[in-house]
Design brief:
The protein is an alpha/beta fold and 260 residues long. Helix content is 34%, strand content 26%. It contains 9 helices and 9 strands. The strands form 2 sheets. A 7-stranded mixed sheet has the order 3-2-1-4-5-9-8, with helices on both faces. A hairpin with a 2-residue loop joins β6 and β7. α3 packs across α5. The longest helix is centred in the first third of the chain and has 17 residues.
Length: 260
């Protein structure tokens, strides 16, 4: 299939529940637990526990209805604001936050956090903390100058974006343009954490194939440095399992801050 015919996440949307089942569930046939769950959890916990990334407000801009990457944050931020581009993703995420029947089961991710922390006695407490911190799950429009127009968000101490730029950017100029919009949400001295897939051109949800931006570690680093940010942590990990669902070569985790 020609890449020009691939769907685009922010234009066409995808089934958010199917995305979770395919890439982030505890099903035996899930694509890769090590890549999609363990790698981001370990690196987020390291960044937070080192004591440099914390504060009052964390803003998350990630695709789909992912929650697992926010479990580590609830001990270090009082408020978590989640911004989504698709209504369906908001509904799916709120179903879990409100503990409704049929909500996606994140127990395996909570267990992974507990195993890494070495504290399996606080499984229920961990999910409760996340639900309490997730006070706002709202829609945004990255095409607007103020992506929350007419609302003005309070400046964030930290922004996390897990894979969003990979999915919405058609080229590297797009990456820089959207990255700048994310960075505007930070307060002076704030941190940004980017988690993404390197050298990926597509991913699939069910039978639908979606566009992904192909970039490497060097580009990701230079993009942040070019905006005046200092990289505190950068980890890349080669892909664990090969399959036909997506073609990324490695994962990347970058934490950076801008000097006051």
């Amino acid at each position: 299939m020609d890449s020009s015919t691939h769907k685009r996440y922010h234009e066409d949307g995808f089934d958010s529940r199917q995305h979770l089942e395919s890439y982030l569930s505890d099903n035996p046939d899930m694509i890769s637990v090590e890549d999609s769950l363990i790698f981001p959890i370990k690196n987020l916990m390291k960044s937070f526990t080192e004591g440099h990334v914390q504060g009052d407000i964390l803003i998350d801009l990630s695709p789909g209805s992912m929650v697992h990457h926010l479990f580590a944050a609830c001990d270090f931020f009082k408020h978590i604001i989640v911004l989504k581009m698709r209504d369906r993703c908001i509904m799916e995420m709120k179903r879990w936050v409100d503990s409704r029947t049929g909500a996606f089961d994140w127990n395996h991710a909570t267990q992974a956090h507990a195993d890494i922390e070495g504290n399996s006695d606080q499984l229920q407490d961990k999910e409760g903390k996340v639900r309490t911190a997730l006070q706002h799950i709202v829609k945004c429009d990255l095409e607007k100058e103020n992506i929350m127009d007419p609302i003005v968000l309070p400046p964030a101490d930290c922004i996390i974006s897990f894979g969003l730029l990979d999915m919405i950017c058609k080229d590297k100029d797009d990456y820089i343009r959207y990255l700048r919009k994310l960075l505007k949400l930070l307060k002076p001295g704030g941190h940004i954490i980017l988690i993404g897939c390197l050298e990926m051109t597509f991913y699939t949800i069910g039978k639908q194939k979606f566009h992904a931006l192909n970039y490497d570690e060097d580009f990701a680093r230079k993009a942040l440095v070019g905006e005046g940010f200092i990289i505190d942590r950068c980890e890349a990990k080669k892909r664990t399992v090969m399959n036909d669902h997506t073609d990324y070569k490695a994962l990347i985790f970058i934490a950076a801050h801008k000097e006051m």
